[in-house]
Design goal:
The chain is of the alpha/beta class. 32% of the residues lie in helices and 22% in strands. The chain folds into two domains: 169 residues, 3-Layer(aba) Sandwich (Rossmann fold), CATH 3.40.50; 76 residues, Trehalose-6-phosphate phosphatase related protein, domain 2 (Alpha-Beta Plaits, 2-Layer Sandwich), CATH 3.30.70.
């Protein structure tokens, strides 16, 4: 997935320690900030419904959104993200960008993938029958996909969940794909769409394609790599985009991971500090 020029997370400079370099990147440009939600604005938690944004983070995002375009790009349903954020001055791209809302233009519903509605309904029902009885599992139906969380499932039971997911993919090879995440399988329509394409689409839709625009993306998950890559490799953006990986560079689980991000922030708390600094 990662680009050929990717580096290990452990090799990335910390964004808070590179203020002068970042200032040079952003000077004289309009900043557009794209933010993942889970693991970036809130810590990863056992149950998705418990990922509530802190008052301090909410204030940091709100203040930044008063100064530049801020968009939350999440795998969650768009309306769920809006409720969790509790802010009305953000662009929100839910379901990995299938469903977008702007304070100026309202809902921008992506038609792509709509023809898979019947298959997704079948999959949601099947997962409810075969996965939900497994202790600790959580099936999260969404408007354009369905997620299966297994963080609280015992190690012995996790292969059962994987088997159900693989069976569904084999039965619908032309209709479904799976996007892996942190202790979650996300079954989506098999279309050429991801967070990177969502960010590029948003730059166009929000009239942010000019050379005077500096896009920045903050994220922590595998799905965010598509956005890091898009900002680095897309000809219309390359040289202007900045990717920031969120996660401890000294954590053995992530230190050796290849990423196309340019900088790292160690924690959600450091993200808050960074957003405050951008707003100032």
């Amino acid at each position: 997935m990662t680009a050929s020029g990717a580096r290990k997370v452990s090799e990335l400079p910390n964004a808070m320690e590179q203020k002068e370099e970042l200032k040079g990147r952003l000077e004289g440009k309009r900043l557009a900030v794209f933010l993942d939600y889970d693991g970036t604005l809130t810590p990863i938690v056992d149950r998705p419904q418990d990922a509530v944004i802190s008052d301090r983070m909410q204030r940091a995002v709100r203040d930044l959104a008063e100064r530049c375009v801020v968009c939350v790009v999440s795998g969650r349903d768009r309306k769920v993200v809006q409720e969790l954020m509790g802010l009305d001055n953000l662009v929100v791209a839910g379901s990995h960008g299938f469903d977008i809302w702007s304070p100026d233009e309202g809902a921008i519903q992506r038609e792509m993938g709509g023809e898979f509605g019947e298959v997704l309904d079948e999959v949601k029902a099947r997962l409810a029958r075969e996965v939900e009885p497994i202790e600790g599992s959580l099936v999260e139906p969404k408007s354009a996909s369905v997620a299966v969380h297994y963080r609280l499932v015992s190690e012995d039971e996790r292969p059962k969940i994987r088997a159900v997911v693989e069976a569904l993919l084999q039965e619908h090879p032309d209709e479904l794909k799976v996007t892996p995440g942190k202790m979650v399988y996300e079954l989506q329509p098999k279309v050429d769409w991801d967070k990177g394409k969502a960010v590029l689409y948003l730059l166009e839709a929000l009239d942010l394609e000019g050379d005077d625009v500096a896009p920045m993306y903050l994220g922590d998950d595998v799905t965010d790599e598509h956005a890091f890559e898009a900002l680095k490799e897309e000809e219309s953006v390359a040289g202007r985009g900045t990717g920031v990986f969120v996660g401890r560079a000294d954590d053995p689980e992530v230190a050796g991971r290849a990423t196309s991000a340019d900088y790292v922030l160690d924690s959600v708390e450091q993200v808050e500090e960074f957003l405050d600094a951008l707003a100032r």
